[in-house]
Each structure stands twice: as structure tokens, then as C-alpha cells.
Amino acid sequence: MKKILFVLTMALSISAVAQNIRFEGVVKDSTGVGLEMANVMAVNNDTKAMDSYAITNDKGKYVLNLKANASYTLKASYIGFQSYEKTLRTSAQNMTFDIEMSQGVQLKDVEVVYEMPVTISGDTIVYNSDSFTNGTERKLEDVLKKLPGVEVNKDGEIQVEGKTVQKVMVEGKDFFDGDTKIATKNIPADALDKIQVLRNYNEVSNLKGLENNEESIALNIKLKEGKKNFWFGDITAGIGVGHEEDRHIVNPKLFYYSPKYSINVIGNINNIGELPLTMSDYFKFTGGFRNMMKKGGSSFNVTSNDLGILGLRNNQAANIDTKFGAANFSYNPSKAWTISGFGIYLGNKTNIITNSVNDLPVGSSANSQETRSQITEQKSDLGMFKLSSSYVPSDKVHFDYDAFLKYSKQDENQSVVSSEAGTIFTNKEQKPFSINQNLNYYYTLNDKNVFAFETQHLYQEEDPFYNANLEMLPFTLVGYDNTQTRDDITQKRFVKTNKLDAKFDYYYMVTPKSNINVTLGNTYSYQNFDSGIFQILDNGTQNDLDDAENTNNVDYSFNDVFLGLHYKFILGEFTFNPGVTAHYYSMKDSQLGDEFTRNFNRFLPDFYALWQIKKSETLTYNFSLTNNFTDIVKLAEGYVFSNYNSLFQGNRYLENSLSQVHSLRYFKYNMFNFENIFANITYTRQVDAVKNRAFLSSINQVSTAVNMDSNFADETFIASGNYGRSFLKYYKASGGLSLNWSKFNNIRVYTTGDQIQATESFAQNYYVRFSTNYKELPNLSLEYAYTINDNSSDIFYTDNPSIELEYYFWDAFSFVSEYSYYHNRNKGKTIDSEYDFLSASLMYQKKDSKWEWKLSGTNLLETKGLNSNSFNQLGGTSSFSSYVVQPRYIILSLKYSL
Fold this sequence. Notes:
globular, 6-stranded mixed beta sheet, 37-stranded mixed beta sheet, mainly beta
């Protein structure tokens, strides 16, 4: 059936194109010079519809696809020139028609720009939403996928020109700052008027042009007039049937926007696997906080001390019960002052069933593989709250304050049956808490002098609790009683962190095209780590393993004072920004009854260069030399359970590693034919890296952290590229690849001594994508993805073709369906699996009606599970896992739109 629909759609497309002619020419000024990025459109005088539009290239050329023997009004506009309008009739043959613009501005230009599907003004690209929709769209994500040069991945992340969008705003107001997924999954499509892509985005106007913002992109959503100063949104409720129990969903979305304040409220309660936010999304949520120390040349990141609960992905679950609530607000007490914030709650009950085959390290067991079956039950309650204040009384002063709080309570119970370790029961609990505060002040004294002060404080507490009930403990611990029926071992940990970053920047404009930047900064961190292990005996009593090697009581301080100098200057098409930063480092840890300190100096250079080949074509080079420091987790010398089969011991004498990173990025965006090209290569070389020195036996490992000899550097090479184009108004095609080669070194411990183990992996991903966008015909989206994972132990291949069908018909019905097929296999065909997924929705809503009925089905083919493969660089081994997925759900829902 799908093949028939595809053939019919393509046949209709070819038929439509065959009746059209090519209408082209040059838009020029009175001297004959072509005008780049002028807007040209043709309005059909019979239907009053805009049949075609174009934006001129660097020579002023435009091309329109028009109907033969038809009457049109040709319109053109260009900033600083009078609008152009002429009535003409096409012939049966291709035509050439040049347009001469006269200088001067008329209000009619506004009307022309409003009707254009795409316009460009400086660094801003503006898309007219209605020009790209066909009636099947329900949320922002559906519209973004159809815009030229815009992609939305399956995680809801937005990419423009190959760069990830960092912020989404609505009417200039932040929409849950720190994540774009909430916006793409919830903002209703019928509320959209314009979608503005803000390139080279910097929310601090004082620093505009002083910093390198080419990688920074934001979106601003302009609402339709009927959606302003009124509540809008929708409320959805649905019931259905699934495996062994009834299914439900309740999903209210309410929005209010006015010049003075805005309110957004979103809720979602369901047990059909719809995920407004995953646990992984929660922990990636930044709250909009920037990495203020990225230019300094030091990397000191507070690592997460979680227990691996997040390693289980919710889209690989057998059952999910979700409760989600979020509210966002913005209020302007005055033109200069904005107060904003949000609160988010996410509650999940998740059941995960996994079967895996894991290669064992050579020589560690009589067997070459371990088979493992595990059932996992997770329960989590996650909360986030942010409050922001921004005061900008003039273009000279900018003052910000932000506070971002995160709290969660997570529990996980797991039962495992392993061919190597027997039956295992584990329990994990953790209640991490953090509050991040940010205070910034920016002051422009005059055209020559700009000052910036930024400070950020992090307070964080983590208290992971881990218990494992084993047939046999695979490790030897001092004080452990190994005469018990089963081994019941528990570890409690507590990690507290205070981290303060502060820096002062002074910018001096030497000339209009050059400036000097002096930076004085400091990073200070103080951490405490306590842990203890105890055993529950058969009689219920507790055996405390309080020997020094089983406990931790560590204090650790890190201090980095630095002074940086950068010089940015423009020479024609080139921008250069070299710099160097001088650091003084001081570290001290206290454990095992004594203190260990280390102090040293280091000069770290960096370099940035940009070649502006054309207005929308650039080549960018970045180089950085970075000192990487570990935090307290890898310095604590008492044993820590990473898992029931993994024991880790820190090393207080660890030194920093040094990494050099080279990246080269090419980008081209041609509005003439909506062609976008980007390519990026990045090479990283890290010496003195902190690596694992491990003794491996079967599935068990005991490891410690050491600095790898500088002769054995870790290396990675990453390359990616994409070509995309929209053509003939109805089609969008793209193709791309990503390559990731890495070489890592670790130390394996053998009875005969230590041996350095180098492991290499090479991952290749390729895809091609094609989609149509008709107003009245069925629309198809076709994609084929191919993946090769080549590691030291095996090679895995994955084919993933997919097809989406959209059709809006009879002015009331919308049909949407998606089918994906997967074929996973390894080189020797010892692993070979196939599975597919099909979902479909039929919606009914009369024009101008507030009610919509929807019948939807997920996993209609009743697929039982999906597969994935992974690689362990320490053991040089690979794993193949199969996850049981949610069964078929059929849901009938009713939506009411305000």
C-alpha cells in the first residue's frame, strides 16, 4: 500500500511540474548592479494565491516556477528600495524578465515582506509559518521539520545550519530556558505566525561583536494576532486499551502572552509511553546557564556521583507511567526590568526488561561470552525551579541574576540472572540536590571601553545508596565475613560540593574592527566525600567494614587564578582572535590522616579564525590547549562500588591531563535555491590522561585511576557533514554522514605484570532523507540510515529505512503514520535480528471548530523488542542487548482548543 501511495504522489508531482515553466531574471539597481537577497514573488491573479517565491543570489538572479499561460502580479522588495509590482502573463515557454529597483522606501514593502515565506535581515532568518504547513501539524516540531535549513532530531533538539539551537523564546520571552524539547513538543502549531532564527546570538547587547558568537543560535516565535492578550492552548483527554490494562492520557496546555507578562502551563499524565521529558533530559537541563570559563583553558567539571540509574533509557522500557507538570512565567514591572522563571516536575514509574550477550575479556574466563537477563523497576520524582531577574535600564548597563534549583528522588530495584554470577538482586537510591546561582554585570562606558563581571556559585549534595545481594562476592574486602548463605553488601556515600567561578573582563576597542580583551578570573572548589561499606549477616546483624581501605573521609580544594589576554581584529574577509592565558593552580586533599598539596603555573594559548567567504558562507578554525582536572571522586582512595561486579579505588596523586583540540568548520547557506551545506572536522589529542588500571576476571573488575604515560596519548577524530536543499517549493532533500574514530589506552593487570591495552573504534553513520510538502496531496517523508560500529572485538551493522505519511483531506480529516524498520547484525552473522515499528493517527476537526477527535495506535505490529550494541574500551569488548518495548496501544482522545 505504501509503495502505491508513493508512486501516486510522485506521479502527481511530476504532472504538476510538467505544466509549469521556468521564469527567471535579475533584480538590479538603476546602475545595473545585481541585488543579493532581494525578495521576489508571483501572485496568481485568478486564485489570489502566491504560486512561487525566490530570494536572489549574489548576482541578483532569481528563478520562479510558474504555471504556463497564466496571469500574475510580480512583486519584489529590497531594503532601501521602493517596492516593485508589475502585472504580466506567462507563455507556454520558459521566460526571462529582469527587474530594476528604484531607491527609496515605501510602506508597501512591509506587505511584501509579510507575504514572503522566507526573508533575511542581517543575522535573522524569518520563516512565515503558514507558507510551510498543510493542516496535519499539531505542534512546533511538526512545522520546524518542514522549514528549509532546519532539522529536528528524535530527542526534540533543533538544529539550524548544523548548529544546535540553544534557546527558544516566544514573543521575545524565554520559554523554559535551558532546553528546547519542551517547546518543540508543546507549543501548538496553529498559534505560530513567524519563526525567527537568530544567528550569532548574544543576549547581552553590550558584548555584541566583541565575542565570537558564530556557533550561537536562538529561535524566537512570533504569535498570530488572535493569540496575543488572550488565553490559548488546548486540553486533551484520552482512553484506550493496551496489554493487560486500560490506558489513559490527560494533557492540558495553556498559554497567555501580553507585552507585560506571559504564563505557560503544561501538564501530562499518561501510561502510554508518551514522554514530555525523560530522566536523561532532566539531568541535561542546564537552566540556560552558560559555560563562563570556556575561554580560560582550564576544565574542572564536577562529575555526577550517580549510580547509573540514568544509563537505562526510557524509550527502551516495557512500561512507563508518567506524571509531568511545568509552568513558566515572565513579568515586566517596567521596560527595563524583567522577572522570569519556571518550575518543572517529572514523575516516572518505569519497568525495563533486558536480555544481553556480553563478550568477556580474553583470558578472564573459560567462557567467551556472558548471557544476562535483568528486570528493572525504577521510580523517580524530579523537580527543577528557576528564578531570573534582568535589569537593562539603557544600552550601557545590563544586570542579571539567576537561581536554578534541582532536586530528585530516585529508586531502582533490579533482579539479574547471569551465566557467570548467578542470581543477583540490587537496590539503588539517591536524592541529589543542587542550587546554581549566577550574577552578571555589564557596563559600556563609551565606544572604546566595555566592562563585564560574571560570577557563578554551585552548591551540590549527593547521597547515593547501593545494596547488592549476591550468590558470591567476587572481591576480597578486609573484615568481610564470607561464611554467609548469600552475600549482602551495602555502601553509603555522601558528596558535598561548593564551587565558585568569578571573572572580570575588560574590552578596549582599538579601532572599529579590533579590540583587546583582558580577563582576570578565579575558579575555587571545595568538596567533601564520605563513604562506608557494611554487610548484612544471615542473622540480620550489621558487619561494618571500617578498615581504611573500605571507607572514605576526604576533603579536597582546587584553586585556579588566571589572567588572559586576547586580541580580536578583522582584515577584509578574515577575523582573527588569538589569545593566551596564564594560570596558577593550587590543589590540596586531606585523607588517611595527612595532606597532599600541589602547586604549579601554566601558560595556555588559544586561537580563533573566521573566513567570511560570502554573506552566508564561512570557514572557521578553532584551536585550544586545555588543562583537564579531576574532582574528588577519582582522588578518594577507599573502595567504591561502581556496580555489583565493579570495585574502584581512587588515587590522590593524580595529575592533570593536557588536551589539544583542533576544529575546522565550513558552512554555506544559499537562499537562492535554499541549499545548505555544513561540514566539521575535530581532532583531539590528550596526553597524561586519567585512565583505568584494572584487573579483569570474567565479568568482574577491580580498578584504580592512574595517569597514562605521555607516550600513549588518547586520540579522537570526528568528522560530520550535511547537504540539504529545498526545491520547486514542494520538496526537501538532505543527506549526511558522521564519522568517529577513537583510540584509547588503559592498563590491564595480569599475574605477569601490567600491560597497556590500546583499543580503537570507528563508528560511521550515513543517512539520506526526502520529503514532500503539498497543501492538497498526500505527503511522504522517506529516510534511510546506515550505521557501522567497528571496534576491537567485532563489527556491527544497522540498516534503518523509515517512511512517514501525512494527508489532510476533506477539510476536516488528518492522517499521520510512521513506519521504521531495523536490521542489526554483526560481521560473522552470529547476531542477526530484524524488527519494525508502525504507528498511525486519524484526526477529525471541522474548520473553525474547537473540538478534535483522534484515534491513534502505537506499535501496531506488536513488536516485542529492540536491539542495540555497545563497546567497552577498558575490556576491549562489545555487548549486544535486546530491550522489551511497550505493546500495542489504541487510544481514543478528545481535544478542546481555547
